[in-house]
């Protein structure tokens, strides 16, 4: 086994590929031109990228064929491999949920007693049903689970839901969440020291990337006598930067806010006399 670089497994094609590559790119890991269908080397980080089917990634990591990988948490939990969940990545959010035909008289989970449920996630579903004390027949299907009820194969399904439009267009309704999921970085439990240091470096960069996505840089002008009120609204990481404007009695304040808070704060800032408010994306953020 080569110990001088980190082998990173990502999905070969599918929903995770583009965002995985974009995140690695933001972390300074760029694939060089020697890129083929199976593997690629990187110019500026000692790593190799392996392109695999997402379902195979947990086993390859457990076996040490790859050192780390990016995969949906739903796949990690289903595969039950002995691997480490290193960090959540904040993309490919979805949920695994139970759904039934629209005319199914569902009241609670007991409505599924004795029913046939189609899924690609038999272990997660079995666990969930066991905890709920429900006995049902699980039918394992590897794709197009949503059509199982309409072709008479099952009474219900347990599948990934994101917007819910697939369920809707197949005459199904979501009745019970089973697990939440997002893309995660997973790792082999027995990395050597060199690889462990590379993994730590990667996680550090990923955390900076994740934080930057949740925060925005904010710049505004305000009357100097409003400084204290504005600091309370946008306290920033340590404290905001305050610069005098050429116009006497006015200052410019620079700070960082969470994107989700923006619309809440903006009216309060205006009430303090803030003007010329700019909110700009942050590329990396290290606290
Ligand atoms: O070929 P390979 O085996 O590698 O890929 P795959 O076909 O198994 O997986 P892929 O690319 O479809 O999804 C990879 C991962 O993305 C999943 O394991 C989830 O963690 C995550 N993810 C996020 C999703 C979705 N959103 C999603 N919407 N995976 C699948 N879907 C499907 C779902 O199965 C259903 O058919 O999209 C449909 C539902 O979407 P909505 O928006 O209509 O609700
Ligand atoms: Zn798959």
Descriptive account of the structure:
The protein is built from eight helices and 15 strands. The longest helix is centred in the C-terminal third of the chain and has 22 residues. Helix content is 28%, strand content 32%. The chain has three domains: 94 residues, Periplasmic binding protein-like II (D-Maltodextrin-Binding Protein, domain 2, 3-Layer(aba) Sandwich); 88 residues, Periplasmic binding protein-like II (D-Maltodextrin-Binding Protein, domain 2); 67 residues, Alpha-Beta Plaits (2-Layer Sandwich). It has 287 residues and is of the alpha/beta class. The strands form three sheets. It has a six-stranded mixed beta sheet with strand order 2-3-1-4-11-5, with helices on both faces. It has a five-stranded mixed beta sheet with strand order 8-7-9-6-10. A four-stranded antiparallel beta sheet has the order 13-14-12-15.
Produce the secondary structure layout.
Elements: E1 6-11, H1 17-26, E2 39-41, E3 47-52, H2 57-63, E4 68-72, H3 73-79, E5 84-88, E6 94-101, E7 116-119, H4 122-132, E8 137-140, E9 156-161, H5 165-169, E10 172-181, E11 183-187, H6 193-214, E12 215-223, H7 227-233, E13 241-244, E14 250-258, H8 262-271, E15 275-281
Parallel strand pairs: 1-3, 1-4, 7-8, 7-9
Antiparallel strand pairs: 2-3, 4-11, 5-11, 6-9, 6-10, 12-14, 12-15, 13-14
